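A reminder from the course coordinator: this example appears on the midterm review sheet, so study it carefully.

Given structure:
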């Protein structure tokens, strides 16, 4: 059993009680996702991504890294232009899932790359898009086309507070990549 599978199993097993608390004032709105992908990527950093489960429990992680993409190019899914801003597209690369969120003009998106979770008092970093999708239990069947603004199973919440935003540009990426943005 991999570390991610173990963490996911522990989350599911430990989500057996508790009260769901929602801070509606700190949720992102549709207007948040109407901005260009670079702005959305940088403004997601430091916020919480929260997965609410049917048994009224949650898994909450702090977003640490996001990539920004403008327009369609290369292998970006053609369904993006059909989605309104703030809608999840679960894509697959090398057999692993990634969480893309539409934003800005039709065809633009951000990809969630890394988040830090506090599970039973210990820190766990989902350091990669597939680990993040796994810990949040995001699959194409359940979440492709999911609306982060109107849906209730996954939300982006909280204010990032004062954080430093860093940008890393990688070589050999499609020309529509607006960079990889992260915080420490």
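Designed residues:
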């Amino acid at each position: 059993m991999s570390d991610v599978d173990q963490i996911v199993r522990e989350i599911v097993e430990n989500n057996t009680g508790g009260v769901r608390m929602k801070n509606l004032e700190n949720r992102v709105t549709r207007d948040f996702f109407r901005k260009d992908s670079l702005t959305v990527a940088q403004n997601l950093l430091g916020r919480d991504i929260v997965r609410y489960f049917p048994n009224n429990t949650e898994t909450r992680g702090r977003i640490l890294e996001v990539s920004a993409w403008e327009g369609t190019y290369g292998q970006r899914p053609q369904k993006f232009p059909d989605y309104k801003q703030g809608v999840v597209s679960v894509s697959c690369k090398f057999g692993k899932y990634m969480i893309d969120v539409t934003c800005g003009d039709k065809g633009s998106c951000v990809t969630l790359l890394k988040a830090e979770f506090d599970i039973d008092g210990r820190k766990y970093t989902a350091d990669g898009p597939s680990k993040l999708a796994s810990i949040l239990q995001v699959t194409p069947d359940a979440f492709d086309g999911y609306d982060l603004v109107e849906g209730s199973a996954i939300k982006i919440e909280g204010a990032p507070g004062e954080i430093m935003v860093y940008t890393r540009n990688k070589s050999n990426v499609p020309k529509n990549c607006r960079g990889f943005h992260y915080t420490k």
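Residues 1-25 have pLDDT under 50 and may be disordered. The beta strands are 48-52, 58-69, 88-93, 96-103, 108-119, 122-127, 154-157, 166-168, 177-182.
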